TrEMBL record:
Species this protein is from: Oceanibacterium hippocampi
Entry-linked PROSITE patterns: PFKB_KINASES_2 (PS00584)
Cofactor: Mg(2+)
Organism taxonomic ancestry: Bacteria, Pseudomonadati, Pseudomonadota, Alphaproteobacteria, Sneathiellales
Gene symbol of the encoding locus: rbsK
Annotated pathway: Carbohydrate metabolism; D-ribose degradation; D-ribose 5-phosphate from beta-D-ribopyranose: step 2/2
Protein name: Ribokinase
Amino acid sequence: MSRVKIAVQGIFVADLAFRSHRMPAPGESVIGRSYGIGPGGKASNQAVAAARAGAEVALIARLGRDSFAEMARALFVREGVIDAHVGSDDEAPTGAAAITVDETTGENAIVVVPGASGRLSTGDIDAAAARIAASDIFMTQLETPPEISAYGLRLARTQGVRTIFNPAPAAEIAADLYALADFFTPNESEAAALAGHPVGSLAEAEAAAASFLSRGVGTAIITLGARGAVVRGPGFNGHVPPFDIGRAVDTTGAGDAYNGALAVAIAEGMPLERALRFAAAAGAVAVTTVGTAEAMPRRDAVERLLAGG
């Protein structure tokens, strides 16, 4: 079978990750145990995840002209991510993210500065129109301005390309943007912010998913971490249970692994329930490894977990 094609629009950032025995409270300093610098950014991570799952992947983004950009280009070469539409910006640096990881729980807190990728323009997306049109799935997030996300989704739709909209981090979005999402994939906190009510239980997640469908979303997939996912749409309605992988080491890239794998599974024509299990397995494998791009799982690891390994 020929490889499916995925186009991902968004950002690359360099992740500066700090690990400590617990998260600091506001105004508090704690002594950390380790730190590291590596590749990150939701779009870049999702592109790597999709490539490792077997797709031909093109990224639409911007970098500065600095050492972090060199890190990005090396990653794309190593992972086989097509970077023909990753531009170089002379006026802004490559983005960066500060990540604090609680070693006890694996939970994290993140501050993202998009840098050059935050200057992604409609012209950049137009230049990638042929690549988008040739794709099986187009995927974007909210680390670039919402109007840029909307522009990419709209262009993909006009070309008949199915879309995945991962509204992360949560931000106010125009009402007509929901209808551009064939698959809408917020996590618990993002769903709560967008729905306007808590998503602390499965029933509340179901209510949020129903509200997204009423706004025009094709299929709403609310990921709930260790509690699995709640899904509402024409292909599946129900709760997708999580995989038991023991203690999470680092949850930072789990959502990106999930979305990248979901894009590949849908593009390959898997029935939605099976595609959701494939994505859940990818997210579960990701939390067993420290880092973000480095934690994106390879397909054989995902399939081993699906098979009970």
